[in-house]
Amino acid sequence: MEITQLILTNFKNYEKESFQFSSQINCLVGRNGMGKTNLLDAIYYLCMGKSYFVPNDRYLSLHGTDFFRIEGHFDREEKREKIVAKVIPKKKKELERNGVPYAKLSEHIGFLPVVIIIPDDTLLATEGSEARRRFLDNTISQLDPLYLKHLIQYQKVLRQRNAALKQMGESGRFQESLLEVYDLQLQMPGLYISEKREAFVEEFNPILAQVYRTISGGAETASCSYRSPLQKEPDLMELLRKHRDKDRILHRTTTGLHRDDLVFNLDEFPLKRFASQGQLKSFILSLKLAQYELIKKNKNQRPLLLLDDIFDKLDHHRVDHLLALLLDGDFGQVFITDTDQKRVSQMIESRDSSYREFLITKGKATAL
C-alpha cells in the first residue's frame, strides 16, 4: 500500500499544497517549525481519521480559516483509493472513500494501516499507563474491527458509570443496583479486550526482541509484558464488585481494563529506571518498528511508515544501524523528516534506493 498524491487545504500551516510521492522513501527536510511534522500528521489523519498530535480538530485549521481539507490518493491491493477528510471544526467532520462518506469513522480504521514514530514517543516508557494503553489500542484496532467496536462500547459505559458515581457522591445516595447494570454491560466487551491484549503481547514480544537486537547491535535484550487487574480476578463483574466501596468513596471506577499496562524491560531490568537516553530511544524505535512488523504480518500488507526526527539523541553507531534496517529491511513506503539535508539522502544514494526529497519552508514544498 502507498500514497501517491496528497493535497492539503488550510491544514495547519499549509494553505494550498500538493505532493507527488515516491513509492519507496520520501525525505522531508528543513528547519524546525517549517511544517515537516504537519505533513506526516496529514497522512496519519487520512489513515486514522484524526491527528496523532492534536486531540481537537479546531486547532488543525490554518490560522484565520474555518475549515480544512485533506485529500489522498492511494494504491491499495492493486486498486486506486481516494480518501478525503472535510472538516469544519466544532460543526462538521466527514471522511469519504471514493466519494462515499463513512457512516461511522470506526469503519475506516485499519483500511490504511499506518505506524508513526516521533521524538515524544519516549513518553510511552516514562509517563503513566494511559499512553501505553493507547499504543495497545492503536495497534489492535488496526487489526481487528471487533476489538475497536468493543473498546468504544467499554469506554462509553465506563463514562456513564463514572458519571453515575460522581452524581451519587454529590447527592449522597448510593445506588448499588445501578452499578450492577453498568458492570453487566462492561463484562462482555471487557472480556474480549482483555483476551486480545493478552494475545497481542504474546505475539508481539519476540518481534520486539528481534528488532531491538538489530538496532542496538545485540547490546541488550528487550521485552514487554502485560499487566491487568483481571490477571488476579478474571471475572470483571466480581472485580468491580470487590472495588465498589472504593469507587463509592472516590466517585470513580478504580479498577478494570482502563487500568491495564505494559511493562518494558532491558535485560530484565525496568526500562524506565535503568535505561540511558540512547537505550530509551532505541527501545521506543524498536517498539514502533515491531508494531509495523506485527501489522504487516497480520494484514499481509505493508503499513505506511512515518518517521519524524528519529535521529535526534542517537549516536552515530545507532543511526547507522537504524538506517540500514530501514533501507535494507522489508518496508514499503517510508516518510522521514530530518533537519540535516544530507544525512538521509547520502545514505540512500549509497544503496541506490528510489526516493524523493522535499525541502519544506513555511508550509511550502520544493522538490529537490
Summarize the SSE layout with pairings.
Layout (H helix, E strand, L loop, with lengths): L1 E10 L2 E7 L4 E5 L6 H13 L19 E9 L2 E10 L3 E6 L2 E2 L12 E4 L5 H4 L2 H15 L1 H27 L4 H41 L5 E6 L8 H7 L1 H7 L10 E6 L2 E2 H4 L2 H23 L4 E5 L7 H13 L5 E5 L2 H10 L4 E7 L2 E4 L1
Parallel strand pairs: 3-13, 3-14, 8-12, 12-13
Antiparallel strand pairs: 1-2, 1-4, 4-5, 5-6, 6-7, 9-10, 10-11, 14-15
Helix pairs in contact: 3-4, 4-5, 4-7, 5-6, 5-9
Protein name: DNA replication and repair protein RecF
Subcellular location: Cytoplasm
Function: The RecF protein is involved in DNA metabolism; it is required for DNA replication and normal SOS inducibility. RecF binds preferentially to single-stranded, linear DNA. It also seems to bind ATP.
Please describe the structure with a list of short key phrases separated by commas or semicolons:
368 residues; alpha/beta; Rossmann fold; Glutathione S-transferase Yfyf (Class Pi), Chain A, domain 2; 2 domains; six-stranded antiparallel beta sheet; six-stranded mixed beta sheet; 15 strands; 45% helix; 24% strand; globular; RecF_2; DNA replication; DNA-binding_RecF_CS; single-stranded DNA binding
